[in-house]
Amino acid sequence: MSRTRTERLVNLVICLLSTRRFLTAAQIAATVPGYEHDPDDPKDHEAFQRKFERDKAELRELGVPLETGTASVFDAEPGYRIAPRAYALPDIPLEPDEAAAVGIAARLWQHAGLAAAASSGLAKLRAAGIDVDPQATLGLEPMVTVDPAFAPLTAAARDRREVSFDYRVPDRDAPTRRRVQPWGVVCWRGRWYVVGHDLDRAATRCFRLSRVVGTVRATGEPGAYEPPAGVDLISHVARWSGPVERTGRATVLATPGRAAGLRRWAVECQAGPDGDRLVLPYADADYLAGQIVGYGPDVRVLEPPEVREAVIQRLKEVAARHDELAVTGGAR
């Protein structure tokens, strides 16, 4: 399935989950990105109908409970919706490594071109006077973001296009221009990296996305190269980054019986009247903050200040994102 079709199907699901009433094909076409067409042009409208029928069949094959009905007895044209109760999954127990994989995948959402399109579609529904339930899709858009370079570099790796970007390294004052044939983007120890062939150095190189400065520019034609067969991107990043020395120590206060993952990480654990004090070794304050935030109110950072400030910044980002959703959901 192409990326464009996948995005269209996801936006269709979000659209139909976000309203309690049945939406006609015309309303869906005016709302969901990817269905734009001229309804007065017979050929264009026929192409939309074929596309919509294929998408409906695809959703039903995937097990999506697509309902057909009318909003009132006066409606002649049938509409479509997805009942949240029928669509919701039961509780799924995950092993720690499985949960970690799901968490990494969720980080991709916001920069996969889906979140903005989904928000635009819901705004169109409200503009048309259709009641939208802002709670129906809160779980579909994570609050974690990735580096701005993520989207253009993953697109370039997918399309096999050469790129150029300015790259900053810690021991130099000014960034330098790099020309790269990207093979892929991977997450390693809480950081995103692009691995590929550095054209100026004629060698394989890894680049941390957070050190990319400014805009990533696609400079080559699609399909201009092929990555080495069976290349292991994670191994390249691991060799390049070297071993991690967790010389830092953070002390957190955990609710008794909670935060099992941090307890396994801790080198010290001491019970107290206010909770259990855990001492956590770390190398990167921001990475540790990302782990701590996932435990919500069950974990509070006592020291050092750099980890506490990193956690506060993460929580501010989450709060700001929730505020955006609240404003969008409250607009009529």
UniProtKB/TrEMBL annotation:
Xref: Pfam families: WCX (PF25583), WYL (PF13280)
Domain WCX stretches: 248-319
PROSITE patterns xref list: WYL
Protein name as it appears in the record: Proteasome accessory factor B
Entry keyword Transferase: no
Species, as recorded: Micromonospora tulbaghiae
Position of the signal peptide: 1-25
Domain WYL: 149-212
GO (cellular component) term, any one: proteasome complex
Keywords, alphabetical: Proteasome, Signal
